[in-house]
Structures are given as structure tokens and as C-alpha cells.
Write a structure and sequence with these properties.
CATH architecture of the largest domain: Alpha-Beta Complex
Number of strands: 7
Low-confidence stretches: none
Distance between the termini: 35 Å
Mean pLDDT: 88
CATH class of the largest domain: Alpha Beta
Structural class: alpha+beta
Oligomer: single chain
CATH superfamily of the largest domain: Aspartate Aminotransferase, domain 1
Length: about 220
């Protein structure tokens, strides 16, 4: 959200004595523009800030964190104790040292460059279909999405892509109701540069085949 909308949301939370759970997912990987301030950095009393190292380091670490108002901390520790007692102490100490010595920040800077290169290659490899199918959602994170014309079935394009050896998901399952966007979700984070290029080229071919089949080219 833009800064004015964030400020308005915080005002609403204060007015209604509400608590905002802020899952700042993939905030470290924002491209071309500077990250917006977290809600928790603007107002601490009505926000609980959630984060994880699963994307920045590795999912197998299984370590996340919560920044909460002091009044909630004892209850959160109690809930954590009931759920799994504690995260292994050795893992916490190693991670804390990794952060304190600056390795985590250097790792983020390096990975931001790595993911930016994959993102740029994805954009370039999908250029042949740019005029027909825009690629959106590139500002942050490790995903983007293709917005298809309403007359083009996303599931049909996904099937064509799968027949070419490329797996993509439609956007429909990510909506709680009727989807407002007809499109495909593209995840490029774990792929090599070669896989990004080959996969995007195959996907562009699948899109063009569907466009031609439906007379939209």
C-alpha cells in the first residue's frame, strides 16, 4: 500500500481499538524502488509485525520472528510454549551471530542482485507477447503474473505450457471468491537463469498458440 493508505489504516486501527497483523512478506526483495516503511515502524501499539527467514535464507531453518507491543509479549511466549516449546537454541544463537556480524545484510544485497537478474531475464524472454499479455507484479517479491485477455482461458494456457515442460499456476485458486484477474502466476526465485529463459520462451509459445487458436492474435 502507498504511504497515505498505510497512515489511513493505522488511523482506522487506533479509532476502532483494533490490532493489525503485518506479514511483511518478501520485503527484502523490492526492485527499482525503495521499500516502503513497515506499519510497525510508524505505529507500534496497534501492530504485530511478522517475518520469516524462509525466503531470505532457507525454509529448512524454520525460524521466524514477531515484533509485538509489550502488552502482548507474555501471551505470545505462552502460546509459543504450548505449540512447540521453543526453537532450537543452537539455531537461534547461530542466526543471531550471523546477523550481528553483518553476514545477513551482505547476503540480502547479493541475493537481491541475483533475483534482479532473473527478473530482468524473465521480462526480456516474454517480450514477444508483451503487446498481447502484460507482465505485472514485478515491483517486489519473487513472483510475477501474466494478465490474460478475458477470452483466453488461463487453465488452457497452463495446460499448453505443461505440455511444453513448464509448470505455472492460474491465479484463480488465490481468490476467496470470483477472480478479478484472469492470469498466470510465475515464480522465478528458485530457477537458474537458463531455466528462467527456457521456461519463459516456452510459456510465450503456449500463450501465442492459445491466442492464435482463439483468434486474438
Amino acid at each position: 500500500m502507498s504511504l497515505p493508505r498505510r497512515t489511513a489504516l493505522l488511523g482506522w486501527a487506533r479509532q476502532h481499538d483494533s490490532l493489525i497483523l503485518e506479514d511483511d512478506y518478501d520485503v527484502e526483495f523490492r526492485f527499482e524502488t525503495a521499500p516502503l516503511p513497515a506499519l510497525a515502524s510508524l505505529e507500534q501499539d496497534c501492530t504485530v509485525y511478522l517475518g520469516t527467514f524462509s525466503k531470505t535464507l532457507t525454509p529448512s531453518l524454520r525460524v521466524g520472528f514477531i515484533v509485538a507491543p509489550p502488552a502482548l509479549r507474555d501471551r505470545l511466549v505462552w502460546v509459543k510454549t504450548l505449540s512447540d516449546y521453543h526453537t532450537p537454541l543452537q539455531v537461534q544463537l547461530a542466526l543471531a551471530q550471523f546477523i550481528q556480524e553483518g553476514h545477513f545484510e551482505r547476503h540480502i544485497r547479493r541475493m537481491r542482485r541475483v533475483y534482479a537478474a532473473k527478473r530482468a531475464l524473465l521480462v526480456n524472454s516474454l517480450q514477444p507477447i508483451r503487446d498481447h499479455v502484460p507482465l505485472k507484479g514485478l515491483d517486489a517479491g519473487l513472483h510475477a503474473h501474466l494478465e490474460l485477455p478475458e477470452a483466453i482461458g488461463a487453465s488452457r494456457v497452463a495446460e499448453r505450457a505443461e505440455s511444453l515442460g513448464v509448470g505455472v499456476r492460474t491465479l484463480a485458486p488465490y481468490y476467496s471468491g470470483q477472480p478479478s484477474v484472469n492470469g498466470l502466476l510465475l515464480g522465478y526465485g528458485p530457477l537458474s537463469l537458463k531455466e528462467v529463459q527456457v521456461g519463459a520462451q516456452a510459456l510465450a509459445r503456449a500463450v501465442m498458440e492459445e491466442l492464435n487458436a482463439t483468434g486474438h492474435h
